Amino acid sequence: MSAVLQPAQPQRPSSDVAMISIRDLRVSYGEREILHGISFDVLKGETMVILGGSGSGKSTLLRTLVGLETPTSGEIWIRGKNTAAMTAAEREETRKKMGMSFQGGALFGSMTVGQNVALPLKEHTNLADSTVDIMLRLKLEQVGLAGYEDYKPSQLSGGMKKRAAVARALSMDPEILFFDEPSAGLDPIIAAGIDQLILELKKAFHMTIIVVTHELASAFLIADRMVLIDKGHVVALGTMQEMRESVHPRVRQFLDRVAEPEVEQELDYLQMLTKERTRARR
Amino acid sequence: MTGVLAQIGETVIDTLAYLGGLARLGARAASYVFVAPFRGKPLRLGRSIAQAMEVGVRALPILSLITFFIGLILALQAAYELKKFGALNYVASAVVISMSRELGPLITAIVVIGRSGSAFAAELGTMKVSEEIDALETMAINPVQFLVTPKFLAMIIMLPCLTIWANFMGVLGGSLFGVAQADFTFGGYIHASLDALFLRDITTGLVKSVMFGATITAVGCYEGLNTGGGAEQVGRSTTAAVVTSIFMVIAVDLVFTALFFFLGGK
Question: pTM score, two decimals?
């Protein structure tokens, strides 16, 4: 029997240790619904990995959590507050408590690494330049990029860009840190270095960390709990052990890296295409 | 028939939505320039000055050359008709009035669209594609305030300045013909030009140039901020920014020329 928990659907955050509570979240792009009623909690201080294949909706979920997409319905509670009921000032304050590391780094190409990392501090605090300078050196040191403050992002390797992006995400000492595909496009050694960095950050700052990925090795290394998203639904939620022991067919297929059964045989593939076309015509 | 009507309706709705988007973006940028500083949100003067250098100072060489030639062309075209009436001495006034009321602001706007309107769309489009705009939002930094406002401020200040310079270069271009072919001395040509000008001629041109600056910024930034995914879309946004800006600038020109005509007589 599977130990993987299917998420409950309570009306309000079930636990006061929940840093983020997602309740029946639905998100659409135009008329196409991407997330069909997602619910789960992310507990304070834990690393939650959101797993899912391409097009599963995991990146949309992350973008919605950081406020880049607006839900069509449902609720997101962050630090005990419903985001939909927040005033603009409250929303801004909440965002300052969150850091986000984007898939490609999203560093500002016209600025140096130092200016990138210092930007949130300069925008949101009245700290003296000398203090900002000390803080940015500290952040760069934390991610292993000490001495790179005068480099332009274009002069950095892929792994260094991600580290610099993490330093920028850390600049306001966030309580919640989001990572979008931290290992994407990196070789296994550099990717392992990023995983190590996430573990170190968790150990040092006890942050709540949410990582979206489809890299299983990375997920099993860094996660306290995982949630598997498939076609906009939560398929499974649980600890690494629970996920490993799950007999849910979709979990097994994902963890065992089994191809979609329909496309294993050429004939099946052609039949699938025909079905899709017939559906599209209707 | 229904299909055609639906198509027309859809185009009208899309156009109105586009114009609404431009107006909203322009109004937000204007409020960050004129209102927000009084509510404790200071202007980003450093970024605005950097933009002003790019938009204004670096445009001077090409703008000077183009408007000098335009002034000379205007003098030649005017002389073609004027000499039939033995009125070549009116070349100076024809050139200076055409330049200051119409061609100075318009040519300046077109040069700025080519240099800066396209650059705004390309810059913001690339930032959109590489998630830099999203990164700003997640850092609680308003992209309009951070990126569009300095451009807006730079444009509404630099376009009138460039227009004045363009008018001057046009007059210089005209003077080349005046001195060589119309028995003017250089001093006499400049004097004749100044005599022909009314303050109204200059102010109408300058008012237009401020509106052109706002329009070019709104279109360039709107196209950039609405870029879809991929490098190809950045190219599409840049082209759209140039084409739409030229059209919008001419439309704004028509509105203001008509407004000045009906409100002020000449």
Answer: 0.84
